[in-house]
Amino acid sequence: MIEKTPKMITKKQWYIVDNLESHFVQTAAYQLGNRLFNEPEIWTSETQVRAPDLAYLTKKQIRKETPDEKTISPFVIEVVSQTDRMYKVTEKLREYFKAGVEVVWLILPESEEVYVYTSPLEVSISHGDKPCFAGSVLSDFNITAADIFRK
């Protein structure tokens, strides 16, 4: 099932993406040609495609992709808005991990918190100067919650 939802990153939240990208370009992964993509199609099953706000893709995934291949990102980021329904957010979270995603960040701009999931039940909450990590997927990509929300 393809569920169409509106684009979720609003102009009001562009600074969050800019802050994430500014830190990502300092990683070894970026130097190797890997990228953070805005709303790429990520297949969570044979019939379900999601478009996370940001997803990490390797250069190999970017260059070798054919229409028949199903892309799975090891690391996705969702910016949670005030209008998002919790059951939908947790449904996506479970789908991502079932599909093979290793790390999911849920960014909550209103409370300036980042929920860093390494499984559907393992979560670390970052706020202020507490760093957010992307685990072994991007070991040198760490950014504090304060840096994510810096305007």
Question: Care to describe what's here?
Answer:
The structure is a single chain. The strands form three sheets. Strands 1-4-5-6-7-8 form a six-stranded mixed β-sheet, with helices on both faces. A two-stranded antiparallel sheet has the order 2-3. Strands 9-10 form a two-stranded antiparallel ribbon. The model has no long low-confidence stretch (mean pLDDT 91). It has one domain: tt1808, chain A. The protein is an alpha+beta fold.
Structure summarized in a few sentences:
The chain is 26% helix and 29% strand.
Descriptive tags:
151 residues, tt1808, chain A, six-stranded mixed β-sheet, two-stranded antiparallel ribbon
What is the number of independent domains?
A: 1
The percentage of residues in β strands lies in 25-35%
Structural class: alpha+beta
Strand order of the largest sheet: 1-4-5-6-7-8
Reading off the top of the CATH hierarchy, the class is best stated as Alpha Beta
N-C termini distance: 38 Å
CATH architecture: Alpha-Beta Complex
Number of strands: 10
Helical coverage, percent range:
25-40%
**Helix run count:** 5
List low-confidence stretches. none
What overall form do the CA principal axes indicate?
globular
Order of helices and strands: HHEEEEHEHEEEEEH
